[in-house]
């Protein structure tokens, strides 16, 4: 089966109970920490559900990065 997680996302599986999503400055890279046994389809669904939030956070970082470069 093909990987359902987009390649620009960084997925790490850990011995945790919940799924965590982080947007890392300054690049806006998406990092996901997922439980060891969680299915890829569940992770992909979570990412899809949060897609607009992810884009908004990345946009905020891009704008903040641009402001920093003005000075």
How would you describe the shape? elongated
- Structural class call reads alpha+beta
Q: Approximately how much beta-strand content do the residues carry?
A: 25-35%
| Radius of gyration over C-alpha positions, nearest whole angstrom | 14 Å
Main sheet: strand order? 1-3-2
What would a concise description of this structure say?
The protein has two helices and three strands, in the order βββαα. The chain is α+β, with helices and mostly antiparallel strands.
Keyword list:
single chain; 71 residues; alpha+beta; three-stranded mixed β-sheet; 2 helices; 41% helix
Topology:
Blueprint: E1 9-14, E2 20-24, E3 29-35, H1 40-49, H2 51-69
Parallel strand pairs: 1-3
Antiparallel strand pairs: 2-3
Explain how this protein is built.
The chain is of the alpha+beta class and 71 residues long. Helices cover 41% and strands 25% of the residues. It is built from 2 helices and 3 strands; from the N terminus they run E-E-E-H-H. It has helices at residues 40-49, 51-69, and strands spanning 9-14, 20-24, 29-35. The protein has a 3-stranded mixed beta sheet, with helices on one face. The radius of gyration is 14 Å and the shape is elongated.
């Amino acid at each position: 089966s093909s990987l359902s997680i987009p390649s620009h996302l960084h997925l790490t599986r850990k011995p945790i109970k919940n799924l965590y999503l982080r947007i890392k400055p300054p690049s806006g890279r998406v990092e996901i920490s997922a439980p060891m046994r969680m299915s890829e389809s569940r992770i992909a669904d979570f990412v899809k559900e949060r897609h607009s939030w992810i884009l908004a956070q990345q946009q905020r970082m891009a704008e903040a990065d641009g402001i920093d470069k003005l000075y």
